[in-house]
Amino acid sequence: MTGSVSFHAGVSAEDQVARHYARRGARAVARRWRGAGGEVDLVLLHADTVVFVEVKKSRDHARAAQRLSQRQIARLHAAASEYLATCPAGLNTPARFDVALVDRSGYIDIIENALCA
Prior knowledge:
This protein has 117 residues and is α+β, with helices and mostly antiparallel strands. It is built from three helices and five strands.
């Protein structure tokens, strides 16, 4: 995929995932939230829990999952810590990391609490 096509495919996948969570009662509070430590694709609020979501799109879910590196996970943790520091309860805010895998047909597989720290 070229850079522009890949970018737009990623944005489309993020939109699909945000709608998926909205149907489950979550509300998007930030998209592509960027801190000094990195970027989180989606930040959602579900009940009292902040849900950080990394969206991975590929032709199948196995390939999508393989695209998440240890280095990226470290950046996600750093960015999430920065985000939580802005919340009233700070790092005591209930939070979790989900990974949303999207295949070429648009099927979404959510792995809740996938990046436990």
